[in-house]
Amino acid sequence: MNSRSVTAQGRGQARRAANSDAMAAAGRAGFAARGVIYVLVGFLALRIAFPGGGGKQADRGGAVAEIAEKPFGTVLLWVLGAAVAGMALWRLSEALFGGAGPDEHKSGKRAMAAGRAVFYAFVAYSVLSFAAGDSGSGGGSSDQQSQDITAKALGWPGGQWIVGIGGAVVAGAGLWIAVRALMRKYHKHLKLSEMSHRVRRAVDVTGMFGGAARGSVFAAAGAFAVTAAIEHEPDKSKGMDDTLRSFADTPVGPWLLVLIALGLVAFGVFSWFNARYRKV
Fold it and tell me: pTM of the prediction?
């Protein structure tokens, strides 16, 4: 057996693994875990919208810390981290072999899947590290991390441009997420024929509302990064927690934050619908 046939056989085995029931289960578990995180972040954001409820971070670190405080919290974190790792593996399989759907084999789609695989791998690592006892990992402040990264980047040659372009990309991605959600682009990824009319209506409510809220948070965070670059002040950069709190500083007071928080909860529920109906 020559090296070419061995390579082809290895690729075939990898492709079969990517299309296996186990990989599909990993992806669905990842969507369920993403839903848990967003629902918790949404509820934490609801708390900080009202007086006396702002003691905890409304970000992934706050959600992880909230889980850790519950009975069997460490066990739950191990399960959550493993589920997110499953999402990373599933996204990696999409990057290598393409996902479900007629256009998911395009190079752009596969590149986006690769980026998501890296992101979910980082999230899984942070959650599992926190479960293992590293309280500075998964439970760290997104605000401090954002400011530290911005400060370091601003110190590089051309740092202002790097931070500014990065912020603009994040802001643009947020708008893209929101617009696609409002256009119900997620339909092509779901098994709509398996849904009842009531379920499909719930999917659209949570998908459109949740996606728009999630996109708004990304867009705002990107805008703050652009401001930090223009003014050369790392403290102007904000993580998820400070970005959410900034919605309460608008002329409508805490009510915009309440709306965004409910939207994040909705996105978490939408993620659970994905765990059931996603084409994987």
Answer: 0.90
Question: Do 238 and 170 form a contact (C-beta atoms < 8 A)?
Answer: no
**Domain match, 168 and 207 both:** yes
Domain that holds residue 246: 163-268
Answer whether residue 150 is part of any domain.
Answer: no
Burial class (CB in 10 A: 0-12, 13-18, 19+), 125: middle
Do the domain assignments include residue 193?
Answer: yes
Residue 173 lies in a domain: yes
pLDDT digits (tens, 9 = 90+) for 51-64: 766 667 888 888 99
235 found inside a domain:
yes
Last-in-domain residue among 85, 104, 139: 139
CB atoms within 10 A of CB 81: 23
**129-165 per-position pLDDT tens digit:** 999 987 665 555 677 888 889 999 999 999 999 999 9
